[in-house]
């Protein structure tokens, strides 16, 4: 039986111990307006204090409601949040790509989706370095990926798959929600349909499978064989994201 309160307290202790051990001072979190970043914000605010948490919204041709939902989180927990609109940066990048040749929308689709989280992560690390200088203490970037997303490789290599610390990586979607309930994450955020805020589709639409079914595979619970096979195929096809092959010379 998952004890959300107990697990929340253990995560908070984990964060405090890690920051003390490595002499860290603050954290930068990309606040998307979804449950994962909302829960991460709640955990770090409790662990470090709101004065050591910086939330960042990074719209890029995004829906205004995502920024509004992100503000619900920062307002509730009281940490500083800044808005860094990267739409023009993205558009400038796309303009340069278009100068390389003529490409169809279908050919560009996957590249366009993945460059956005990469631009966002670049922005978060820039701000972490800036705030480290401004506050005279080291800021790091928090990841927000949960166990279900990670299992099927639902993250961008060099984008949202990059972070300095991730406290949700071993928690399934249902466990994240339960911890969010303990933390009183605003309901509009906690129970919002998961989406990347970039592609115009929900996570489950993009993946073609439900998070509840991914969780069943992780927990080795009964599941339709066709669905299980699809999830395992997603898992297998994403393994390259976790390991960088390194050539080693022979003596």
Could you please describe the fold and organization of this structure?
This protein has eleven helices and five strands; from the N terminus they run H-E-H-E-H-E-H-H-E-H-E-H-H-H-H-H. The chain has 251 residues and is α/β, with parallel strands linked by helices. The chain has a single domain, classed as Rossmann fold. Strands 3-2-1-4-5 form a five-stranded parallel sheet, sandwiched between helices. Helix 2 links the parallel strand 1 (26-30) and strand 2 (53-57). Helix 1 crosses helix 2 (35-48) and helix 2 (35-48) crosses helix 7. The radius of gyration is 19 Å and the shape is globular. It starts with a helix and ends in a 14-residue tail after the last helix. The model has no long low-confidence stretch (mean pLDDT 95).
Brief overview:
This protein is an alpha/beta fold.
Mean pLDDT: 95
CATH architecture: 3-Layer(aba) Sandwich
Shape: globular
Classify the fold: give the CATH topology: Rossmann fold
- Rounded to an integer in angstroms, the radius of gyration calculated over CA atoms is 19 Å
Total of helices: 11
Secondary-structure map with pairings?
Blueprint: H1 4-21, E1 26-30, H2 35-48, E2 53-57, H3 64-77, E3 80-83, H4 87-98, H5 105-135, E4 139-143, H6 147-151, E5 165-166, H7 173-182, H8 187-190, H9 203-207, H10 211-218, H11 225-237
Parallel strand pairs: 1-2, 1-4, 2-3, 4-5
Features of this protein?
5 strands, Rossmann fold, alpha/beta, five-stranded parallel beta sheet, single chain, 251 residues
């Amino acid at each position: 039986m998952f004890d959300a309160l107990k697990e929340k307290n253990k995560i908070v202790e984990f964060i405090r111990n890690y920051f003390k051990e490595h002499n860290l001072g603050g954290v930068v979190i990309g606040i998307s307006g979804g449950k994962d970043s909302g829960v991460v914000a709640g955990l770090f605010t409790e662990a470090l204090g709101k004065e050591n948490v910086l939330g960042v919204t990074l719209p890029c041709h995004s829906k205004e409601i995502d920024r509004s939902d992100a503000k619900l989180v920062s307002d509730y927990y009281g940490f500083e949040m800044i808005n860094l609109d990267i739409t023009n940066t993205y558009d400038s990048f796309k303009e340069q790509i278009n100068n390389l040749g003529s490409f169809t929308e279908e050919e560009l689709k996957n590249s366009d989706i993945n460059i956005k989280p990469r631009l966002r992560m670049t922005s978060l690390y820039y701000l972490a370095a800036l705030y480290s200088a401004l506050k005279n203490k080291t800021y790091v970037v928090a990841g927000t990926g949960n166990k279900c997303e990670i299992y099927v490789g639902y993250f961008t290599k060099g984008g949202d798959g990059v972070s300095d610390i991730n406290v949700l990586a071993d928690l399934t979607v249902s466990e994240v929600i339960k911890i969010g309930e303990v933390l009183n994450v605003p309901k509009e955020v906690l129970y919002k349909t998961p989406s990347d805020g970039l592609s115009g589709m929900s996570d489950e639409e993009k993946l073609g499978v439900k998070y509840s079914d991914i969780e069943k595979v992780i927990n080795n619970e009964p599941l339709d064989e066709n669905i299980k096979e699809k999830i395992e195929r997603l898992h297998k096809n994403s393994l390259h994201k976790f390991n960088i092959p390194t050539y080693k010379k022979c003596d």
